[in-house]
Amino acid sequence: MTYCLGILLPSGLVLASDSRSNAGVDQVALVKKLAIFEVPGQRVIAILSAGNLATTQAVVSAFRETAGTGMYGQDLHAANTMFDVAMMVGGKLREVLGRDATFVQPFGDPNGNFLVGGQIAGEPPRLFHIYSAGNFVEASDRSRFLQLGETKYGKPILDRALTGTSTLDEAAKLSLLSFDATMRSNLSVDAPIDLLRYAADSFSARNFATLEKDDPYWMELRKRYSDGLSSLVASIPPPPVWG
User: Fold this and answer.
1) In the structure, how many helices (H) and strands (E) does the chain have?
2) 3-231 falls under which CATH superfamily?
């Protein structure tokens, strides 16, 4: 299992993914699920992946092979818009599944899903969810976050606290708390957590971090949130006696 999250705000994007790949109780590995394609000053494109690892890695690796080549419909560095990028990722996913799916199906689900976020000069930051069919939906001011994988545990805090006026730093904190809630309830999601805070019009991925389990900030955030929840619950009066 995995958990990937993308948040779209007027001030930019927050993108995060865990690193656990689980093919059984005795086949647990750590893999990178957030790939960044950057042309400083011109574009930053991030691809987050969930699902069959061979499928998703084949898609991302194909774009790494063609980055900067100028190949029409294959080079993310040459895409005109983020919509074009989403179309390219969806098309590549169909291509990989069309080639490999029948061979993989006897051994498991061959499908994959992606979050694609970023900004290309001339348009604002954008965020898409590409489904296994290769089609996609786009985040908007009415639907500011998109999730992949194990989504249910980390969604409530985003529904409650994320707003259109949230800053990138606030959204980053909420993202990490969303991962904390998921990791507490599902062992198939685990650190390290890759986190990108992309500021609109910066065209730079410099604000990227990988948080290990023993990262001081990650440990403090989890402890303060847990302690705060306990204190809050203790401060609420008990229910009255009904009946």
Assistant:
1) 5, 12
2) Aminohydrolase, N-terminal nucleophile (Ntn) domain (3.60.20.10)
